[in-house]
Amino acid sequence: MSRSTVSLVRSNSHYEGVEKALDFIAPQIAKSLEGKRKVIIKPNFTSTTRQLAATHVDAVRAVLDFVMEHYSSKVTVAEGPGFSSLSHGLSNFDYLKLRSDYGVEFLDLNEDDYTEFEVCDRNLNKMKLRVARTVTESDYRISVAPPKTHDFVVATLSIKNMVVGSLVGYDKSGIHQGYKALNLNIAKLAKLVLPHLGVIDGFEGMEGSGPVSGDRVDLGIAIAGLDAVAVDATAAKIMGFNPLDIGYLHYLNEWKARVADPKNIEVLGVPITEVATRFKPHPAYHEQLNWKLNRDELASLAI
Hints:
The chain is α/β, with parallel strands linked by helices. The chain has helices at about 15-25, 25-35, 55-65, 85-90, 95-100, 135, 160-165, 170-175, 180-195, 230-240, 245-255, 270-275, 285-290, 295-300; strands at about 5-10, 40, 75-80, 105-110, 115-120, 125-130, 140-145, 150, 155, 195-200, 205, 215, 220-225, 265-270.
């Protein structure tokens, strides 16, 4: 398997950390933006009222400042909150100024046109979910997310932010079909909407009862990379988790969609050992590890 590269830097603020992480691999990112026609930035608004559970606007500002140097068209900030309106989050988290400061467009993915994608229900039977067409049709997707523990899949990072956020309306709940199907479905959908650039704003993170009600961790790092799986694997390792124990990362690594095995990830900048901070896992952590499919289940799905 080929190796992937990510940048890992220390962070003294949401803006500074993301800015440094992007600058560390600036030539690679700039090249990846060449010729792109439709760029979206996907923040995380798991909550539209609690800032710790959401992407800080300054992290998005750092991404916009970088992108605007290498991309001349309008950027869309797209999100589809699960339990509230996008406008609520934009107002509460001071995102509305991005329109006047950068000329961005805002899009509520819950109101977007959609395409249907086949996944599995909890019995591993076929079902379909609606995926926002703007996400599937964008030729450059940027996911900007904080590192948080999760109540179903151990950790939520740049990939889960993009995948679940791209589902329309109640389909965000519909993807939650038990530990086995959920991890499999996230991985399958990730192959459709994988971020082209993954950014983790780890100035602060959430441990315990994430992704909404957990406790703050002063982590002080930022990560960026063109391989979102490697970005998330690096974040998971920093948080004290084995990335290959996280089902959807395991599948993406096995399918060679990207790289989740830390042995195959080159980390530029600060060594992981210098910033590793063991997060308290979700109370259901040990149950969440029961995501592996048995031989018969795998055979039935032809995986």
